[in-house]
Amino acid sequence: MSNYKFECLNVNITDEGVAHVEINRPKALNAFSTQTWTEIGQCFTQFKHDGNVRCAVLSASGRMFTAGLDLKEAATGPLATNSTEDVDRARRGYYHRLFILKFQDAISAIETCNKPVIAVIHGGCLGIGIDVISACDIRVAAQDAYFIVKEVDIGMAADIGTLQRLPKVVGNDSWVREVCYTARKVSAQEAQAVGLVGSLHASKEAALAAAMDTASLIASKSPVAVVSTKHLLNYSRDHTVQEGLEYTAIWNALAHNSKDMPTAIMASLQKTKPQFPKL
Fold this sequence. Notes:
Blueprint: E1 9-13, E2 18-23, H1 34-48, E3 55-60, H2 71-74, H3 89-112, E4 117-121, E5 124-126, H4 128-134, E6 138-142, E7 146-148, H5 162-170, H6 173-182, E8 186-187, H7 188-194, E9 199-201, H8 204-219, H9 223-237, H10 241-255, H11 260-270
Parallel strand pairs: 2-3, 3-4, 4-6, 5-7, 6-9
Antiparallel strand pairs: 1-2, 7-8
Helix pairs in contact: 1-3, 4-5, 9-10
């Protein structure tokens, strides 16, 4: 656990391998500062290489999941524009692009960590919050949750993953374009209806409990099977069916050598609970 000490995140890992990551800037409504998204990237990158972690749950403290980008920091940070600064525009743009790519990579670490991630949303989930939850595998929400693709209201297009992932999560191009163009508020009930969230719960506590139960069930499975399944789902989403099938054959030519398969099969035949070593 000493490797998971952060300023903006609380991280706890259960004995069964469920990591609970809590965004912890409640006084700022969990707005994403540079420190926050940097730590998100660091945390989930570490999970990818930590065999003790089998599944992760991502939630937030305080009144809401996140108010989005920390606008106070943004006003003086890399997103700020100083028209009086005598800097070549091409050079400024070159380094600004690198900043955006670094930001993107930090949030993409949720998707690429290979361990399934369950998002638990309560209250508002604005702006970058949509980038974050769309990078997760499973989304559950409290009844009071609401969602806003907020970026057009601050004069920009979302650039950290929403426009790339949300159409694939929801599968309704018309709805996605509407909410991205208008920045209107989407209720938890509407989010469930279009498939943005899988289930709704009476409260944040109930949603978190449900997510932890699901994570515990996932953690009880073969870690080789679980990380392989996430990896192949992500690959197949971004490729043709035939490309996905051919890649899966190559991947499983290695993965089928796991001792987890005979262990799982024998446990099924004997109607016992299998025990799998960490990844």
